[in-house]
């Protein structure tokens, strides 16, 4: 029995619940290629090998330790080491051996012979086996089983989504995934205390140990009394997150040019008092106060039309997205690698870094959006969906959406319901 804390995530009020859908582990595995008898699972170790009559020693790769040094310590001859290394490097990059990785040495009990097997554990899932069970070396890669279970977590945001989740012991990756899902509809830099969310997502496990957050399947976000919903759907060439009407939540432009929250220091205005010129003039963009060197993202795919120093604008990048929209990013400290006029960039690609070049009082990004060559407010612009589910797939989408909603609703009300931290018992 294991106590699963699925959702110690969100500040003032939380409701976190673990639900259904975990893949059961296999009841048995064969121990090696030459063994045909099926053993009881209790006789197998984490890599599926028999633990009967075998001594297993676990070691850790030390700094500057290579496969050659490991085998040398196990009394393999230089000729044998050369042969083993030559065979192994055809399958795996031996330079990926890193300090701190573990390896396991299998030797028959009560013998002083060379190892029958060595298992090099690259990470929690992947491992490489050196097997001498049939008097000749066999080298192969394998993966430990990855199990998933769905969880429902909801709660009220304290400050920012990222900070609230991180400060309460949850995975920041969950906040990052949600920000990407709703990044076209919600400006996450305007998230405020009292906004709330609810999400259905997968937790991943390897041998009963938590491995990480998996895919988000459905999510709700209540922001400034408006409820946003997104459902993952994949069928044929259609894949992504869609709202209740089957429209993609993806838009032509992201709401903001950053991955994480940064304060708006000066909003879009037709009559702003300029901080250095001390006179009123239009401010045709939004200023984000951010630490020096913060990565800046292109809010949409397009072609760079300008990338260089431009007087009061400092280092700037301008991107043309289509015949209608273009964006500009000013006061950069430097440009990302490969950013120059004529280069195509993808939505969400890093194009530069926050600085204070040109006419600037401190590190920040001035971000502009133009529609038909006229500046518009990036915070209030309304962009059409990039795509929609075709009528031929709507019935299938509605079934998927209904299943997700049942799982979300089975754990309580809609996003924002207040509750307490819930500890859920889950046996595996």
From TrEMBL:
Keywords from the UniProt entry: Hydrolase, Metal-binding, Metalloprotease, Protease, Signal, Zinc
Cofactor: Zn(2+)
Sample GO molecular function, one term: metalloendopeptidase activity
Sequence ranges assigned to domain M23ase beta-sheet core in this UniProt record: 282-378
GO biological process, one term: proteolysis
GO cellular component: cell envelope
Name this protein carries in UniProt: Peptidase family M23
